[in-house]
Design the sequence.
């Protein structure tokens, strides 16, 4: 399913530009027929986010919405959306990328003061105008030449072909030294896997732990691809994980033992509310969780004295996660979350360095070897 | 001066381990002589931070402090510092790196509960125990195999040799595609410049603007090294800039036109209060500033309508910068800062994309060509 979906997503920029042209032409038709120009999008509020059991990810439901120009409440936003579409078509034609902020200034230059700056803040969780276009055209904003915040690093037996800025380079992820290769915003357009020779993908929440494992060449010894999203995974990082899962590589996730760390796993696995409109383009239901778990405290004696006290906000977040039905349907996770509520403790990944720096790798080898996963 | 200083800093790990051994042996000597073990460090409070006009950077003054074990107020911290030194020696011997957090857990494992977690928070601006060691031994924490947060990216005509984790790779910074090479925590130990064939270094505050310039291969067309610190520069990024300046490359900085962007420049140039103890190891007094400046509003007509309103906090920060004597001694900067106070406006780098995405590069070419810098 995901494999099939992916293929439809990697359109060339010409095809995406065509989609924008078609959108505009449909509006012109409406205008010529003395109708209000309009387009269809889908409701993206929580009321239209559903957990799709068959796929195992959060996606939008079927509630549609029509945006029309001749509507006092929508006219201004409608005009702005059309202006955004127009700019994106220009970017695609020029083969040039920019950020949401760059787009904002292009529009401000053309449209003047009449523009809501907050709509175009990178920090904003929802940029409704651009989301409208993504949903309506069934493309990602990265396909519209809009860069998103990039974050995360990768190393391991994988070579990528990167066509970019008129050039093409090969990125050998075994030759990135202490740094690794930074995961870009767009891992689809112009990016191809030349070769992926790994047995699995290990996703490590914290950069510090990634560096530890990179230093001992864990990816070489275990023949895996070593990724850190550096906390919550960026869109590009989630998409890369999805693409690697499409290659039938097991995805194993390793996070802090607290609600925040665990939610990093869940966002990779099922996607998140805010990005439900991207559904299985960026979610990886196949992902499994190797640790750190509350149960590890019993398994590894020394961990008890390296736990730290969970704060009220940590406990509250664990309770919230218990309330997500797609999480609490997993008995193992319910047990783990309840242990947080009971013991009010948490464990950082970093604690596994307590006995010796190399213990992080030993822990992973043991648990991955025995397939001790939560899923 | 800086060149000379650098050479003394790139000690091998054996030499650094010797420094730690000497520290311990001196203490044993004191104990054997029935004296309290002690070591000398320097006061790092603001009262002992001075602006060194001759070098052009912030550094510590001459006020020393002696830490002694037999002192009710110091005994615990003293013991912890010795424990930190002991662990760092072990890390050096093992050739393994960790983070401050990893160090914390190693100590907690050995010492038990009796440890102040906050002292070892990565977020903490001062980790007094480790700073004590850095100052006392005249090394950087990176030399003690302690990784710091890494941030920032580089591309351009430069090849690095990276000896790491038992391997050695060459990083060709012209072949890093859309991502660039991530600047690591430690750019000294095991890192060498194999070749640097650039005319200058351009430091670009924002990653989005860096990506714009990378896409149009600005570094190739202008034969420069293109760095983004991604906001305030990390220790590793500042150190890389310092090392490139040692190679006589001009350092040109390009930031937002507001107090925060400007202070990114100043932190690169003179160093910062908190890191004054590293002085000219991480400051680059030669750095110059190409923009964005308030004066640009007059020069580029379209910018006026792309300015945004400075918030109270922006204006307050500009006032604070005027109060730093090492900044206000520059007439140009005083003028710029006063324009912020008068007009209450600011301009983002991104605004230069208003007329066309390629304008950012055009702006830089023009101003760098004409050497229109503030220094």
Sequence:
């Amino acid at each position: 399913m995901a494999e099939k979906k992916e293929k439809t997503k990697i359109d060339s920029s010409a095809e995406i530009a065509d989609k924008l042209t078609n959108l505009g032409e449909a509006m012109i038709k409406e205008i010529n027929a003395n109708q209000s120009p309009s387009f269809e999008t889908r409701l993206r509020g929580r009321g239209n986010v559903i957990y799709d059991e068959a796929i195992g990810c959060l996606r939008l439901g079927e509630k549609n919405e029509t945006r029309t120009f001749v509507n006092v409440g929508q006219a201004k936003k409608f005009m702005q959306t059309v202006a955004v579409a127009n700019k994106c078509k220009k970017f695609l034609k020029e083969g040039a990328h920019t950020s949401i902020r760059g787009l904002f200034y292009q529009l401000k230059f053309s449209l003047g003061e009449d523009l809501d700056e907050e709509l175009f803040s990178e920090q904003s969780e929802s940029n409704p105008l651009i989301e409208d276009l993504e949903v309506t055209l069934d493309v990602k904003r990265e396909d519209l030449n809009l860069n998103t915040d990039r974050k995360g690093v990768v190393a391991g037996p994988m070579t990528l072909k990167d066509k970019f800025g008129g050039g093409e380079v090969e990125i050998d992820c075994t030759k990135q030294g202490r740094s690794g290769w930074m995961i870009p915003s767009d891992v689809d357009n112009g990016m191809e896997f030349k070769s992926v020779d790994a047995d699995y993908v290990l996703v490590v929440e914290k950069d510090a732990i990634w560096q530890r494992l990179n230093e001992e060449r864990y990816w070489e010894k275990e023949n895996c691809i070593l990724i850190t999203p550096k906390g919550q995974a960026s869109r590009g990082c989630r998409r890369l994980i999805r693409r690697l899962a499409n290659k039938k590589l097991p995805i194993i996730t390793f996070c802090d033992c607290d609600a925040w760390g665990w939610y990093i796993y869940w966002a990779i696995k099922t996607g998140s509310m805010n990005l439900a409109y991207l559904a299985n383009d960026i979610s990886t239901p196949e992902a499994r969780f190797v640790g750190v778990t509350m149960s590890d405290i019993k398994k590894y004696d020394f961990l008890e004295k390296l736990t730290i006290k969970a704060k009220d906000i940590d406990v509250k977040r664990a309770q919230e996660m218990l309330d997500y039905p797609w999480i609490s349907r997993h008995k193992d996770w319910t047990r783990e979350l309840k242990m947080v509520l009971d013991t009010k403790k948490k464990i950082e990944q970093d604690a596994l360095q307590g006995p010796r720096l190399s213990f992080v790798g030993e822990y992973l080898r043991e648990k991955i070897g025995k397939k001790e996963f939560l899923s």
Observations:
- Chain B touches chain A through 64 residues (CB under 8 Å).
